[in-house]
Each structure stands twice: as C-alpha cells, then as structure tokens.
Amino acid sequence: MANDNMVVVAAVARKGGCGKSTLVKALASAALGAGKSVLLIDTDPQGDLGGWFERATEQGMVPAGASFARARDTEELDARINEAYDGDATDFIFIDTAGTAGAWADQIAMLADYLITPVLATSSDLVVGTQTAQWFQRLQERASRPEDLPPHRVVLTRFPSKATKLEVALAKRAHGLFPVINTIVQDRAAYKEMDERGFLGEIAQSYQSQPSPLERNRARHFQEALVEAMGVLNNIMER
Prior knowledge:
It comes from Rubellimicrobium aerolatum. By secondary structure, this protein is α/β, with parallel strands linked by helices.
C-alpha cells in the first residue's frame, strides 16, 4: 500500500557552500531520532551527501531506518520518490540539490512537499537568499496552479552562540526579507563531527557507550543538536 503520509523535503539555494548538505543531514538525523524512516537523495553532481553516507556506513554510524539513493536528473528523482511512495517504507525523503536555478530547480520544486533554503548571517548570503526567494516568487507567478507549489522556508544556519551586533542585525534583516522559521541552527561542533562521522543519534550512542565519564558526557552535545534539528523540522512543516 502506498504511503500517503510520506513527506518530501528539498534543500535549494542559488549557490553551494551555504550549508544545504549539513542541514539535510541534521534534519534526517532528527527524523530518525523520532523513530521515522528516511531516504536521502543526492542530486548534486559533487556528491557530498553520497560521500558522507558512505563514510557513515563504513564507521557504523547509519541507523536501520536510513537509506540513500542518487538521482542524475529529475526523471530519475521522480522514479526514486515514486518507488519510496509505493513501497510504504519511507516516512521522509530529504533531497540535497546543486546550487543552481532554472528548469532543474523548477522541476524539483514540483516534486517536493517543502522547500528549505539555509542562509548564513552574512551580507553575501542574504543576497543569495534573496535570489533564491525571487526564483520561487517567479515560479509562483508562472505556475498555472501556484497553490499546488510547496511552501518555501528559510533557515538561519551556523549562527554563533555569541553573535556580534552585525550578525544580530543581519538576522533581523533576514526576517524582513524571507519566510524565516523560528528555530535557528547554531554553529555547533556537533554538526561538524556529524559531517565527518554520520548521523547525530548514532554518534550520541557511540559516546554513551564509552567507559570514560568525560566521553559519555560528550553525548549531550549531540542530543542537544538533535533537539534543535527536530525544532527546525517541526517549524518547516508548520502551515
């Protein structure tokens, strides 16, 4: 039986290096931590997400509910989504995309339930975020049924715990420019280790099993990151 409750989330932005892959990994970790099954799909030719999943598999940092696929074009992406839908074994699909616009991005938008764009609190990133928001606005204007397009959410990422006045001002400016969700993704060492090793929950468990109290205490940082990522996922899905 097909899974009508399956949710497809695509990370989109007009350039690379803004944290799409890291955000996808964190959101997938959050969904898995909530007991959901997840399919990660890498459509970026650079293959960051695929390389990460391979490293995580080699290190034993992939939970049973996680799977991975690549898609070279939107036809293959559509097929992967339909397979997961018909198989009724996937709760969430998270798609990492290349930092491009045009027809490729338009078609991905048609396949997703939610679009997310990570934005850093820098002037250059606000420019790129604006370009991405303008692309989505133009897509809405071209669509025969704009109400069928997915909602677009912006996530402030890598925000320092001790932000400067400029960073705070840029964050406030972002809220005036984009549909920014309430939860901010902080600049955490846990996300950097996630990028190197695998899913947040698996890393937390690996520290919890250590004999040293100091090592076990490190699990807390990954649990905090999981809570934060779950807040982001919940905010994204709010209507």
